[in-house]
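Mods, move this if it's the wrong board.
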Amino acid sequence: MYVASGKYKDVRLRWESLRLLYNFLANPTEHSSHRSFNLMACATLSGVDSQIAGFHPMAKMVLVVDDNAAIRQALCHLFTSEANFDVCGEAENGQEAIEKAQALHPDLIVMDLSMPVMNGIDAARALKTLMPTVPVVMFSEYSDVFSDEEARSAGISALALKSEHVSVLIGKARALVYPTAA
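Not the wrong board. C-alpha cells:
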C-alpha cells in the first residue's frame, strides 16, 4: 500500500475531499436544510475553500416598496449588487407591500413613507402585527414627520433618508439582519 507524505499527502487529501464533496452534491440528502449545513461542514472540515466548493451563505431577501419606479429600480440594483442581499420582490404602495410580504416572506422590508393607497406608516403598523420579526427600514425624504418613538411604535426598525449616501441605508439594513456583523 502506498502511503503519501509531505506535499503529496496534502494534494491527495484535497482530491479525496473534492471527490466526497462531488458525491455529496450529486446525491443530496432528503432534507435540504441539512444539505446546506453538511456542505458547509464538509468544505470547512476538509480544508476546501468554501468559495471553491460553491457554498455561499444564504442571502437575506429584501422587499423593496416605493411608488417611484426609478427609486425601486435603483434600490433593487443596490441590494442585488451587495454581498449577502437579494431582492425577493417589489411593491408600489403599502397595501401591495403587505400582500407581497405575506407571500414572499422577506428578511427585510425597505419602504417609502409617502405612497398612494396606503402610506408607509400604516403599512409598517400592519406588518408589525402580521410579521413582527421582519425589520422595516423607512427610506424617506422626510426626516421630521415623526419622532423615533412614533416610528418604533409603528413598527419601523430604522429610518434612512433618501438625501443620505446609500451606504447609510446598507449599513442600517446590515445591522438589522446581521446584528453581530454591524
